[in-house]
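Incident review: delayed structure delivery

Summary: a single-chain prediction request sat in the queue longer than the usual turnaround. Root cause was a stuck worker, restarted by the on-call engineer. No data loss occurred. The affected request and its eventual output are reproduced below so the record is complete for anyone auditing the incident later.

Affected input:
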Amino acid sequence: MSDVVRNLARLYARRESQCESDSPERRVLARARIQADRLALGFRGGASGLPTVLIGGAAIPVLASLARRRVLVVGRQPMEALYETIGHCGRPPEDDADTIALVAIGLTAVTWFVLPVVLVTLAAIFRG
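Output delivered after worker restart:
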């Protein structure tokens, strides 16, 4: 559908350029071209990446919690068993789950709050 709208807008533009400057047909084609151009903006793929960014930002904490669980299941128990087998050699190393969680929370906050404000501000600047 987007190809049809773009081709129609291009056709109107070409026809408009071929008409005489003061003819009524040129005015009709100019209005049709302008409307087709406006319609083409709505069909442009990826015009607004905001929904994708917000969904991705919402997925970050979920992925971080899954990573934390995986580290606990895969790493902690075998490591503790190894340290028990070796003998008294200190505590097993800790994972970086707290750091990962803080980064995930920070990225989520940026995605949910800062990025939409920046995008709205940029849209207002470029429209005005």
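Verification: Residues 50-127 form one domain.
Action items: add queue-age alerting; document worker restart procedure.
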